[in-house]
Design brief:
Length: about 160
């Protein structure tokens, strides 16, 4: 169970901080909810405590793991399907997994493909979403703003 103040990642949305745990009545049944303030913007989400594993909530990575993430970003030897549909589905599954390493792989592979051949509108949107998720977690871990994280990530990709 998470506590107020814990820094977490909500897959497909990014990193945030649990700012409260509230009980709400849904269909007359009381249920506890995590109130999460996502790091980018003013968005707050409510996640039922009993669904935390189902939606993939997890703690942010440790500072020691940041170098491993940056190494994934530097890797240029990734296998990618030439079929757009297969590549898109595989990348979507990686993002949904909630693993920062999988998200970093998506950022790295799509950035490389963008430089070499360009991206479709769907893949461009996916790349932006993956970058947002990656930046938000790294910013929380390193306690820096997302613009600084973007510079760090772009340095690894180039």
């Amino acid at each position: 169970m998470f506590n107020v103040g814990d820094r977490i990642v909500y897959p497909m949305h990014g990193a945030g901080v649990i700012v409260g745990i509230e009980q709400r009545n849904v269909s007359g049944i009381p249920e506890d909810y995590y109130i999460i303030k996502l790091t980018s913007g003013e968005m707050r989400v409510m996640i039922p405590v009993c669904n935390k594993d189902l939606v993939g909530l997890r703690e942010i990575i440790s500072k020691d793991e940041v170098d491993k993430v940056l190494e994934v970003l530097r890797n240029k030897d990734m296998e990618m399907s030439s079929n757009w549909n297969r590549r898109y589905r595989a990348n979507l599954e990686k993002i949904k997994s909630g693993s920062i390493y999988d998200v970093a792989e998506v950022v790295s592979s799509l950035s490389l493909r963008d430089r070499e051949k360009g991206l479709s509108t769907g893949e461009r949107k996916m790349l932006e979403n993956a970058k947002h998720i990656l930046y938000s977690e790294l910013a929380l871990v390193e306690n820096i703003d997302e613009e600084q994280v973007e510079l760090l990530v772009e340095g690894c990709l180039n």
